[in-house]
Write a structure and sequence with these properties.
alpha/beta, six-stranded parallel sheet, globular, two-stranded antiparallel ribbon
Length: 241
């Protein structure tokens, strides 16, 4: 039995796209192009390449089509959150003496910050690890790859295990009772594999991370507990225990 130290917090780590947001936030911007073939090309590019390359290709196209930052903001403002996610963030706010919250995402800072702010969810997040960006004088967004790494399991633009390691080194791993990782994608498996026996990964049901962690050869190398979810209320119920 793992005894909890009441003086220690628990660290909750969120992925962003298709975890906090119901859909991929970049893909939700593609209709602004009004070009279905181009949208499909970008999705195919994203599936096999560096996510940062997909962002920059899209924002180059958007700039050429004179799509304004206000139009992009409107999409981000109206993004659908995953079911129960707002309630989960409210729960974490109401129990901030027990939980610390960070986001580790392969998205970029502008989009993540905007969505969290629009939904009054930014104040509970103590750190966001993602790709930075700059707004060019001509109004175009340029996403900058944050880091290079040699992890073969991760997308070239980010290793989430490396990001978590940086955070824990800065904030002392022994400060936390448990780590809780809420995610959906295949690129989240690397972090899940680095969680300990008292930690929990919450893979979104029927998404890529879930499909991976239910495979017998993956299950046997995971030290952490696995708690699938489709409604974030299920995560609240688990944390309430």
């Amino acid at each position: 039995i793992h005894k909890m130290n009441p003086s220690k917090k628990n660290l909750v780590i969120f992925d962003f796209d298709q975890t906090i947001t119901h859909f991929d936030s970049l893909f939700e911007q593609f209709p602004l192009l009004k070009d279905e073939k181009e949208s499909e090309r970008l999705k195919a590019m994203d599936a096999v390449g560096n996510y940062v390359d997909t962002f920059n290709t899209f924002y180059e196209l958007a700039h050429n089509k004179k799509i304004s930052i206000e139009q992009i903001n409107e999409v981000l403002k109206n993004l659908k959150l995953t079911k129960g996610m707002k309630e989960l963030f409210d729960f974490l706010k109401n129990h901030k003496e027990k939980f610390e919250v960070i986001v580790i995402s392969s998205n970029f800072a502008y989009a993540i910050e905007k969505v969290l702010e629009y939904n009054n969810m930014r104040d509970i997040v103590s750190m966001i690890y993602c790709n930075p960006y700059k707004m060019l004088p001509n109004g175009k967004i340029e996403v900058i790859q944050r880091d290079h790494h040699d992890c073969k399991d991760c997308n070239p633009c980010q290793c989430k295990s490396k990001e978590l390691k940086i955070y824990l080194e800065e904030n002392k791993r022994e400060y936390y009772n448990n780590l809780y990782f809420i995610a959906d994608g295949g690129n989240d498996l690397c972090l899940a594999k680095n969680l300990g026996k008292n930690d929990v990964v919450f893979p979104r049901k029927d998404f890529n991370l879930y499909k991976k962690v239910i495979q017998p050869e993956i299950k046997k190398i995971l030290s952490c507990k696995v708690e699938p979810w489709s409604d974030a209320e299920e995560i609240i119920n688990y944390l309430n225990k």
